[in-house]
Amino acid sequence: MNKTVHKYLTILVLSLAGSSIYALPYIKYVFYDVQLSVMNISHMESGMLISVYALGCMLTYIPGGMLTDRISQSKAMGFSLIGTATLGVVYMFTLSYSVALVIWFLFAVTTTFVFWTSLIKAISLVGEEDEQARLYGLYYAGNGLAGTVINVLALKISTLTEDPTQGFIYSLATLCCFCLFCGILVLLVIRDTNKVEALDEFNFADVKGLLKMPTLWCFSLIVFSGYAVSSSTAYFTPYLSNVVGISIEDTGLFSIIRSHLFYLIAPLGGYLADRIFQSTAKLFTLLFSLLALTLSGVLFLPSSMGELWISVYTLLPGAFGLMLYGLVFSIIRETGIPLKVAGTAIGIASLIGYTPDLFMSTLFGYWLDRFQNDGYWLIFLTLAGISVSGVILSAVVFKKNIGVKEVTVERSELNIA
Questions:
Q1: How many Cα atoms sit within 13 Å of 363 on the Cβ side?
Q2: Can you tell me the distance from the alpha carbon of 42 to that of 240, in angstroms, rounded to the nearest whole number?
């Protein structure tokens, strides 16, 4: 097969794999109300599933990364997908909350342990260094499109019966089939590579210096802010059905657009950061500002606005959030963090950045259980506040990056003189 054709086929398969494997642990993004009803659980219990999943992910990031360099990428991803499908089948036949808690913890093993780092490594190695940004943009665009198709199909299949439980089972079966199919596809298509980068030896002195860098913690908290806001737009799904009053099927469609289809704008975000703003941090100050305004603005929407236009308005935070999240790790290039410890920095940022899953779903679920629809005020105000902190952190990184550039220019001029 032609090298170029195989490169883009690989990105396509990875996009399918990435969207399929996370559809099951994050099934509440589309089937929030249905899952609560079928399992007879509270908002807080639903949030606990994500917290258990997040805890498992935190425990597997570092050992998974170490193991990834020693095993086959295709086998790591392929068997992870098959394992996720198997867990989905077990969940489908039980729909028990106690069993689901165990399954969601095991989902962390099958979707994060060696899958996540193998996926990132595969994307990085499929092309040359000068096309990394474009390939990542294509991956996220493909991931969003694939996720949209997969979840729309699952949603439509769930409507083949009037029984909510049976419809939920149909949707689970659909997602499991996609996972299994992608697992086989990865094993057949993805080639393992022998390309190895020459890395400096691990040095604790370098890590000690890294930990003293303020920009490391700014970077980590920007990841935290971006992920916290973008992932929590899932709460617009029950908001639209419980507060606005639109049908569960329509809320599911809006959720798919908000959580998956908007990944198609990831390449646009990359273009804006590189060509228009010439700084990811500068773009982030704008995106976080827009998120703060649109999230707080939900609380002041007039009832005369109508169900359709309110639903459309809730897509705005989803668009800004996914554009931001698609670029969130690229901001590391503006932090001044040395390349030889960039991997360690990304690991630290991941551990901090994904902690919202440990507590936010449970906290937000508690608010909804206790305060009912008034809980959405607390949720959206909290997310708006996190967005404001994102504005400040991004501005700090941008200012420090400008300072580094000015020093570099001055040194260059002195050398020329």
A1: 13
A2: 18
Tell me which residue of 342, 388, 373 sits closest to 228, measured CA to CA. 388
pLDDT-derived band at 409, boundaries 50, 70, 90: very low
Q: In whole angstroms, give the CA distance from residue 250 to residue 12.
A: 28
Topology of the domain covering 205-417: Growth Hormone; Chain: A; (1.20.1250)
Q: Compute the distance between CA of residue 236 and CA of residue 255 in angstroms, rounded to an integer.
A: 8
Residues 61 and 347: beta-carbon distance below 8 Å: yes
The angle, 0 to 180 degrees and rounded to 10, between the axes of the packed helices 356-371 and 43-68 is: 180
What is the location of CATH 1.20.1250.20 in the chain?
1-190, 205-417
8 Å CB contact between 239 and 311: no
Question: What is residue 202's predicted lDDT score, i.e. its pLDDT?
Answer: 45
State the Cα–Cα distance between residues 80 and 114, nearest whole angstrom: 8
In one-letter notation, the amino acid at residue 392 is: I
390-414 burial, b at 16+ Cβ within 10 Å, e below that, comes to bbebbbbbbebbeeeeeeeeeeeee
| Of 4-13, 148-157, 256-265, minimum mean pLDDT range | 256-265
320 within 8 A of 230, measured Cβ to Cβ: no
Of 381, 392, 393, 256, which Cα lies nearest the Cα of 318?
Answer: 256
Q: Can you tell me the distance from the alpha carbon of 283 to that of 394, in angstroms, rounded to the nearest whole number? A: 9
Closest CA to 148 of 320, 16, 39, 340: 16
Instruction: State pTM to two decimals.
Output: 0.72
Q: What tens digit of pLDDT does each residue of 177-192 get?
A: 999 999 999 999 988 7
- First-residue to last-residue Cα distance in the chain: 53
Residue among 243, 222, 227 nearest 305 (CA): 243
CATH topology assigned to domain 1-190: Growth Hormone; Chain: A; (1.20.1250)
Can you tell me the distance from the alpha carbon of 112 to that of 330, in angstroms, rounded to the nearest whole number?
20
Structure tokens at 54: 């997040």
